Amino acid sequence: MYQEVAGGVCAPKGFAAAGVHCGIRANHNEKYDLALIKAEVRCAAAGVYTTNKVCGAPIKVDRAHLKDGYAQAILVNSGNANTCAANGVALAEECCALVGEALNIPAEDVLPASTGVIGQPMVIDPFARGIPAAAAKLAATAQGSTDAATAIMTTDTHKKEYAIQFELGGKTCTVGAIGKGSGMIAPNMATMLAFYTTDAAVSPALLEKALKTVVPGTYNQMSVDLDTSTNDTLIIMASGLAGNPEICEENADYDAFVAALTAIAEHMCAEHAGDGEGATHLITCEVTHAPDLKTARAVSRSVVCSNLFKAAVFGRDANWGRILCAIGYTPGDFSIDKVCVWLSSAAGEVYVCENAAYHPYSEDEAAKVLAEHDILVKVDMGTGDASAKAWGCDLTYDYVKINGDYRT
């Protein structure tokens, strides 16, 4: 149904990107810290943002700029979150004006985003240097996407980008993505920065609806540390250059578009969770036969968010009681009597819990399963037809080390 292609956010028709070093971080002399994504045409656009009451200034600007449902460029900096700064909104607006001038587009069609340390002073000088440099470097190539993906990284250990192709209305369409986020990630909306581009033709209203349909079962189901960031942002721009009939209603093409967005979002969630700060394992929890979707999602989140289970995975300890415990404290009215649990990876699978009780298994085999990077926890609740996934990571010593000296 989907085919992975190279190019990230530059894979869809009509998009170029760049990453440059502009000097936002005084202690990083060469790291790219400013990314720019530009569309050839004015695009339908939509965004979803943090639920934190303390939010970054760029989010306030984005919401204002997206009132008409259109945009043409995205500007992202790393190193400073532009949150809780007295001049934050004015600075974000000034950055949009600089991008507009450099690209010859209205400033209102520019969507800013920031990530980094919260509460630090911010000045326009690095942007005044970096924006013209990024505009001059824009490239509709895989390297352009890679440079942009690199520029938005903070504690990420590797860049995160992905693109897939699919069919809509007889036309080949593409969705591409870049993202960042390894810490301050909790299941509470788009818990990081992510930027999607597509050449599918979708109306602004249906694009927003599709995005808000996909987020609850993907980005809201991801956690590293239960801290919801102040700057969480997920933006999508649709150029329409693939030539498919514009999606203006909830029809078969709309369903296919939502399915494609879901596929790329699930991939990106696994990328983020697997690269959690200090992590050595990606933990995916799949819940099946739950009484309803709300319960399935809640139970899977509880498992990947359990610090005790996360620590057990780090120690390669098949302590399934911690999984059952997490299921048991999940809010909701449901029975645990038929809960069964398996631990699975490329090394095999062990059946550890049957009907909420111990199922005989080999500790040695379980340790081999947990030695792999990607760990799958399968929970069968035996009480219905609903299913859901959640993504998380193990809890390691390095998580504390990284966050103990984050500002230095």
UniProtKB/TrEMBL annotation:
<comment type="function">
    <text>Catalyzes two activities which are involved in the cyclic version of arginine biosynthesis: the synthesis of N-acetylglutamate from glutamate and acetyl-CoA as the acetyl donor, and of ornithine by transacetylation between N(2)-acetylornithine and glutamate.</text>
</comment>
<feature type="binding site">
    <location>
        <position position="408"/>
    </location>
    <ligand>
        <name>substrate</name>
    </ligand>
</feature>
<feature type="binding site">
    <location>
        <position position="154"/>
    </location>
    <ligand>
        <name>substrate</name>
    </ligand>
</feature>
<feature type="binding site">
    <location>
        <position position="180"/>
    </location>
    <ligand>
        <name>substrate</name>
    </ligand>
</feature>
<feature type="site" description="Involved in the stabilization of negative charge on the oxyanion by the formation of the oxyanion hole">
    <location>
        <position position="115"/>
    </location>
</feature>
<keyword id="KW-0511">Multifunctional enzyme</keyword>
<keyword id="KW-0012">Acyltransferase</keyword>
<keyword id="KW-0808">Transferase</keyword>
<dbReference type="InterPro" id="IPR042195">
    <property type="entry name" value="ArgJ_beta_C"/>
</dbReference>
<dbReference type="GO" id="GO:0004358">
    <property type="term" value="F:L-glutamate N-acetyltransferase activity, acting on acetyl-L-ornithine as donor"/>
</dbReference>
<dbReference type="InterPro" id="IPR002813">
    <property type="entry name" value="Arg_biosynth_ArgJ"/>
</dbReference>
<dbReference type="Pfam" id="PF01960">
    <property type="entry name" value="ArgJ"/>
</dbReference>
<feature type="site" description="Involved in the stabilization of negative charge on the oxyanion by the formation of the oxyanion hole">
    <location>
        <position position="116"/>
    </location>
</feature>
<keyword id="KW-0028">Amino-acid biosynthesis</keyword>
<dbReference type="InterPro" id="IPR016117">
    <property type="entry name" value="ArgJ-like_dom_sf"/>
</dbReference>
<comment type="subunit">
    <text>Heterotetramer of two alpha and two beta chains.</text>
</comment>
<protein>
    <recommendedName>
        <fullName>Arginine biosynthesis bifunctional protein ArgJ</fullName>
        <ecNumber>2.3.1.35</ecNumber>
        <ecNumber>2.3.1.1</ecNumber>
    </recommendedName>
</protein>
<comment type="pathway">
    <text>Amino-acid biosynthesis; L-arginine biosynthesis; L-ornithine and N-acetyl-L-glutamate from L-glutamate and N(2)-acetyl-L-ornithine (cyclic): step 1/1.</text>
</comment>
<feature type="binding site">
    <location>
        <position position="403"/>
    </location>
    <ligand>
        <name>substrate</name>
    </ligand>
</feature>
<comment type="pathway">
    <text>Amino-acid biosynthesis; L-arginine biosynthesis; N(2)-acetyl-L-ornithine from L-glutamate: step 1/4.</text>
</comment>
<feature type="active site" description="Nucleophile">
    <location>
        <position position="191"/>
    </location>
</feature>
<keyword id="KW-0963">Cytoplasm</keyword>
<feature type="binding site">
    <location>
        <position position="191"/>
    </location>
    <ligand>
        <name>substrate</name>
    </ligand>
</feature>
<feature type="site" description="Cleavage; by autolysis">
    <location>
        <begin position="190"/>
        <end position="191"/>
    </location>
</feature>
<keyword id="KW-0055">Arginine biosynthesis</keyword>
<comment type="similarity">
    <text>Belongs to the ArgJ family.</text>
</comment>
<feature type="binding site">
    <location>
        <position position="277"/>
    </location>
    <ligand>
        <name>substrate</name>
    </ligand>
</feature>
<keyword id="KW-0068">Autocatalytic cleavage</keyword>
